[in-house]
Amino acid sequence: MVRKVRTIIRPSEIGMMVMRLFVAAIVMAGAGAAALPAAAQAELLSGDLRLTVVSQPASGAADDYRKPDHDLNTLDDLYARLRSCWSPPANVVEGMQLTVLFSFDTAGRTIAAPLVTYASPDAPAAAVDAYLESVDVSLTACEPLKLTPALGDAIAGRPIMIRYVDNRPSQSD
Q: pTM of the full predicted structure?
């Protein structure tokens, strides 16, 4: 099932959307997040929840794109899993960039369809739709993420922003 959301959010709206996602997380997580000591949450979330995923990683970055073979316990594990999920659309739009915002619940499922916060301004609407569909299909195929209880509690409802970059050469090259 593809959950298609074709909304491009203005930068001025991001703060309000982040606040709504945060409130939704508090409501959904209930007492679960409180069970994790504040020091442990701070350690787990010492980095921010943003990452970049490229269609062709540099040769030295192969480990960053390898699917972890264990339950996800750190942000590095989470990011590696998210990077390993994405398959860009077959039709290349060289240099295409798409940034999406979404959150997971404690069980490792997305709370709602990813929201587009940025798309390459010169990209045709059909290309943006194709890239958004590839992101949504990839995330759905990876769900549920196998999160440890500590990581699940720490990231539940927190906004995650991923910038997808298609760095494959165009098919005419």
A: 0.73
Q: How far apart are CA 61 and CA 54, in angstroms?
A: 10
CA 50 to CA 33: how far, in whole Å?
Answer: 21
Q: Cβ(116)–Cβ(98) under 8 Å?
A: yes
Omega before residue 11 within 30° of 0, cis: no
CA–CA distance, 85 with 99 (Å, rounded to integer): 16
pLDDT in tens, 12-21: 555 555 555 5
Domains of the chain: residue spans and CATH: 50-165 (3.30.1150)
Q: How many CB atoms lie within 10 A of CB 90?
A: 8
Determine contact, residues 128/98, Cβ cutoff 8 Å.
yes
**Cβ(165)–Cβ(53) below 8 Å:** yes
Q: SS3 letters for the chain?
A: CCCCCCCECCHHHHHHHHHHHHHHHHHHHCCCHHHCCHHHHHHHCCCCCEEEEECCCCHHHHHHHCCCCCCECCHHHHHHHHHHHCCCCCCCCCCCEEEEEECECCCCCECCCCEEEEECCCCCHHHHHHHHHHHHHHHHHHCCCCECHHHHHHHCCCCEEEEEECCCCCCCC
pLDDT at 32 exceeding the cut of 50 = no
